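does this look right to u?? zinc ion version
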Amino acid sequence: MIRMDRRQFLTLAAGPVALAWTPRIAYAQGMITPGETDVLAVIDVQNCFVPGGTLPVPEGDRIIPIINRLAPAFRHVVITQDWHTKGHISFASSHPGKKPFETTSLPYGTQVLWPDHCIQGTPDADLHKDLKIPHAELIIRKGYRQHVDSYSAFLEADRKTKTGLTGYLKERGLARVFFVGLATDFCVAWSALDARKAGFEALVIEDATRGIDAGGSLGKAWADMTGAGVKRIQFGGVRRAGTVFGHANRRYGAPVMGPRFMAGSDAVPRRHGPHTVPPAGRRRPPSAL
Ligand code: VGL
Ligand code: ZN
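got this back:
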């Protein structure tokens, strides 16, 4: 005979009810459950952009555990890699007398000059070893033309040359792109803005990004993004299909632990983001006991 204590019984009994309630609660709390036409775009989480790399973004490595926990919520994931040639035109070292973070004028406009970074085939250009997204479906490289930079995952800096990502997403029926990665104010922002121009819905998961913030670039990037209809959300706002947090929190009046969608000024401080979701094994509603 199978013996079950009261706690186990209540947990099991609550299961189907909880699942049935999930969509309504998700909507009520503004949480987002990624679906079949959603894709997570993981931008440039490479050694070059984390501390110890050639163009380190402050705290760039801090987003990796968050991305690893977020990615399983998405059926579809694409990854980008900044992938420059040696002596690339975006490197200050290619412009005598120029220093990193100065600008120069190029045929396609003003170019910020960077330290040599993310050179094709070097360990510096590798995806970070702690990034664990085995189900990612595409890795798209950009910035590999000697004379054109590319922050955006869609369109290079000449604003004409396409990377092919628009066609890929459209052919696959993917309509809503969630962006994470590095750096918020360059490759993430340019990608999100171009996603909007190409007709996609675009969201940036703020606490799964970090910025360079050169000369006010971070504030400007957010202003441009929100002006273009890019939504600004937090990690806690995205949840995996089939989880029952919303229900559990509501019904039992438990402290709000579940992921919540927090847009704009409602955003909860970063420290609350990654800590709000218990490990997968513990995702079940509390029993009433
Ligand atoms: C990036 C500067 C130069 C980025 C790439 O990934 O944001 N920034 N190359
Ligand atoms: Zn670059």
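The CA atoms of residues 232 and 265 lie 9 Å apart. idk if thats expected tbh
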